[in-house]
Amino acid sequence: MAVVDRRRQVIEAAAKSFSLFGYKATTMDQVARIASVGKGTIYTFFSNKEQLFDEIVHKVILEMKHIAEREIRRDKPFFDNLQRVLDSLLEFRSEHELIIKLSQEKREFGTPQAQEGLDKIEGAIIGYLEREVEHAIRQGEIKPCDPKVISVVMLKLYITLTAELNKLHAPLGKEEIKAYFRLILAEGLAQQTM
Amino acid sequence: MAVVDRRRQVIEAAAKSFSLFGYKATTMDQVARIASVGKGTIYTFFSNKEQLFDEIVHKVILEMKHIAEREIRRDKPFFDNLQRVLDSLLEFRSEHELIIKLSQEKREFGTPQAQEGLDKIEGAIIGYLEREVEHAIRQGEIKPCDPKVISVVMLKLYITLTAELNKLHAPLGKEEIKAYFRLILAEGLAQQTM
DNA sequence: TTTCTGACTATTTTACAAATTCGGTCATTC
DNA sequence: GAATGACCGAATTTGTAAAATAGTCAGAAA
User: Fold this and answer.
1) Which ranges does the entry annotate as DNA-binding region (chains A, B) (predicted)?
2) Are residues A18 and A33 in the same domain?
3) Nearest to residue A184, comparing CAs of A163, A164, A156?
4) Distance from residue B26's CA to nucleotide C4's C1', rounded to whole Å
5) Tens digit of pLDDT for each residue in A35-66?
């Protein structure tokens, strides 16, 4: 009981600190202080700073999985589901403090652990998309293709439309993004010749 | 005559040095030495280091424009032309020493001038694609859409398929890239319902 | 007179050492 | 036996002296 409580205190303190200060600027002393725990106590649960960080990243990934699952409606068409899932995932991603902080830390300092954490989160999104694409292929909703390739492309396309484009073009509205996503990926740009 | 010659010597020396050592590690003394010219002479043609660098970047962009124009066959379909142009541009991009060096410098040191130079080159590619997309829309070859948006998406998709994907997936062959590019962008993933 | 030059200067970058901070340990405490 | 925080070596930061560099300009070369 006391053990469980201490572990939770540590995890909560770590989540708070990593979100607020990033990986590098979070010290084990600080985590201990926020958790009102001796520094040694942290090491009874996690063998080092990286493993503690991993735990926090994993919690975020789990949270994202729940969000995604909540958006799936098996009776709706694949592209509708895809749209809703990516929408909610990217909104979560752009609002979650830890992810914002890690992105900033990566840009500013290039901290490898921040990069790895973000990669794990991206990998989880792609893995999730992959299974949905596989399902859609089996259902005959989309043409046969490599789910990994298509998943990566989908995520990149979404990021391009929602974020990268804004450097060169006025930001697109939600409806525009939805329309372009469908136009490009689902229907294709080629003018039907018949 | 002597003036023209000196200017060319400076430009050639600068091109060589920026390609070999990047922006930061290229010194004006070194450029002068390679060009067999006094350092002051450089400043009679270019007001500072950044402007000299700009000249070199512009030469690369011009070269790329020629390469692209060489690939365009007005009698062929848009997607064939697009494929060939992107292919040759990205091959050029991945083999040109200046671009390789600037990419490395950006990754390694984050030199702002290297970043800006690469952005200009990318902007030129997108601008070129934009005009081609406009042409294709006018010809009725592709559906009406914002050429800027589509150009950015096309370039990003191509980079994803040729480079980014390799971190998570076995590299695709040239024919596979071509097939996915068409499948995704031109034909669309959605299974035709009739 | 005009063109070109490299020694010169002010500023930035680097190199290095001292001081500080930090991740991780472990003898002691509770 | 679980929890702690003083302690340790390694890593990072800081302060600063030395070196390098972009840009100038008085004077040499043409």
Assistant:
1) 27-46
2) yes
3) A156
4) 22
5) 999 999 999 999 999 999 999 999 999 999 99
